[in-house]
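Support reply, case 0932

Customer input (verbatim):
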Amino acid sequence: MSANPEKPANVVVIACNALHLGFLGPYGNAWIETPNLDRLAVEGIVFDHHFAENLTTIPTRRSWWTGRYGFADPDQGWTPLQSDERILPDILASRGVRTALISDVPYLHEVGQGFGRGFDDVSWIRGAGYDPYIPADDARAQNIRVEDEPGLTLPPHDDPDRELWLNRWSQYLRNRQALGSQQDAAHTTTARTVDAAIHWLERADQAPTADPFVLWVDLFSPHGPWDPPEPYRDQYAAITPDEFETDEEGDLAEDLLAKDAIDLENIRVLIDVPPGAVGEALSHSELLRLRRTYAGCVSLLDAQIGRLMDSLRALGRLEDTLVIFTADQGEPLGEHGLVRRFRPWLYSELVHTPLIIRLPGAEAGGSRHQAIVQTVDLLPTILDALNCPLPEEPVIHGHSLIPLVTGEITKIRDFACLGMDQEEFAIRTHRWHLVLPLEADPDDPARGVELYHKPEDRWDQNNVVEEYPDLADHLEVTLRRFAEATRTDRIDDVPPLREIARFG
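Our regenerated output:
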């Protein structure tokens, strides 16, 4: 786009971790309270077809900050940033834009990862998840025993990962006790991260110069462990099957609950489980209760996002700031018999993620966009909003979404390609979702190509690959060509999908 002096002066990004699309009001959920995200949707533009590019936490942030596809390159996965990788703050450093990263994501500040590099201001909020923050000899966290926590069940003694989870959960319990995160929401790392972001905004408002800024607020929530304080912990435990909306809105089905009339208030509350299969890692009834606890975590997250938005509103920043809300990934919660990212299965509960963009002054608010967009589009969108040109090197694969939200164009791509751990690729159009296993786990049954019809089959339950073999072949060829093209920066040379409409 050409330079436009009327572009907003600032950008605030609110990024979350492991946020399931089906648990959000703006995406059809009718029973979980998310009033602040609902308001953001009313004031912003909701993208209904936003997909990850390279799962999971670390690879997605590389996608966000480089604007480049990396799912087909093993060096671009869960690996540290390289010294020659040009990321968002590097690009803005010579443009007079102040950059800040405020985050409680423990993986980002691990030694050697380099994900705080280049930002003018960096604030790590410690203690989330298994963050090695509170040591075993800390006086604030003594007599910690995983065996005494009813929400945790250690794997069997012969499980090779038993010691791993014992150490992780011991660390989590020390963090929780020392920081008091179970006392009330104000002590959670989510609230403390938002506190730090609000304080940064207040200081920026009082600065003698009015330099434009990018504030990146990176929240670990609602990633597990799922251990919110009251009232969020039991907020949804008592709702009845009739109040648990399903079907048309696409919420998670609770057939087991409706059939067996399980009293979830009497089911043990699990705060964390190792990734695994339903029936092994946890029972079916525990899964249902876990979904309710997860829902409480989403409402807690929403409340904290509301505090940040209220601060922006009070400071008058919503009139000159572009706000982006998104998440790095979803969260498998039993839709395919698994909890957490036990396998690199690229189903919708993992890869279909939220994206809401609020223009300054809530221009075009309350609209929804059907364009297919991806995580690689955030960097060019931010640069466009700040009236900064794209760098010539390296090639930016993503596209600015500003022309979409202003109505200048209607689409930027016909399909989204993505992958995880170089073990599985997928391609998604408006009507189809194809999953391509590349490397099978030796302990799993063999899996072939899978195809799902959208939007009717929201959570990929009915594999129709045998009904549409020609379509599946065409999608697979396109996906493989695209993956190869990302390695040579020639993605524009990939031929378009042919005659997709004739397949319905």
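We compared this against your earlier run and they match. Two observations from our side: DSSP finds eleven helices and 15 strands in the chain. The mean pLDDT is 90. Please reopen the case if you see a mismatch on your end.
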